[in-house]
Amino acid sequence: MPGRTRIRRRRRARARTRWGAILLGGALTLLTLAGGTALYLLWPRGGVALPTGDAPAIAASVPFGARDLALGSLRGGMAATALGVKPISTQNQGEDTLWLLDGATLRLGGQPLRLLAVTLESPQWAGPRGLRVGDALDAALAAYPSAPPDPEEQPEDFFVFYADGLADGLPVPPCAILSVSQGMTHVRLIGAPEAADGTPSLHPVGDFFADPDTNALVRITWALMPAEQVRLLE
Predict the structure, then answer these.
(1) How far is the CA of 153 from the CAs of 14, 19, 20, 146, 202, in angstroms?
(2) For FRET with 61, which of 91, 155, 162, 192 sits at 20 to 30 Å CA-CA?
(3) 134-190 pLDDT, tens per residue?
């Protein structure tokens, strides 16, 4: 499909996951059976308390993109000299550098050094669209579009919330999918490649990990990735 990025699916030696979706009274109920485990996710489209923070206000109708790459007032692609934060410690990771903060890890790379990725594990930091660790997964889903393809077109390994069409049965970015990963509910959002402070060839990628028992976010990550490194499933 010319002009569109094809995202690779990482193949796994595991049982296929079957997804079912039912729309009832404005709520989306998802059911997956994986290894005998059932997961029910109720997503009310109205009445969800959206988080507040110092991240830029973005309408829920707008897909995940470069503007979502936020850590409080920091933005993806910012030069290290402009970040205005002092790491507790630093580590080398290949050609990149990790800045360890209280509850957050920043990955910087390139020349000059720029912010490429963030991992949040504490509610003190506001991430994409003001979302924080501890917020309900329902609030994260409600902050993004809901336009799933026809149930007959849904892949077996994950549930597609929105996509710029399907290519060979796989969603084309910008897209958002939900899956079960290592016992966690995992939402991955992949943006179309767009200019982000001098990095037009990179895809914005975001991940929300939630505890399936409490439905609370336990980890939020985002990164700028070349297309060849982007995967639908981790």
Answers:
(1) 21, 11, 11, 16, 28
(2) 155
(3) 999 999 999 999 999 888 888 888 999 999 999 988 999 999 999 988 889 999 999
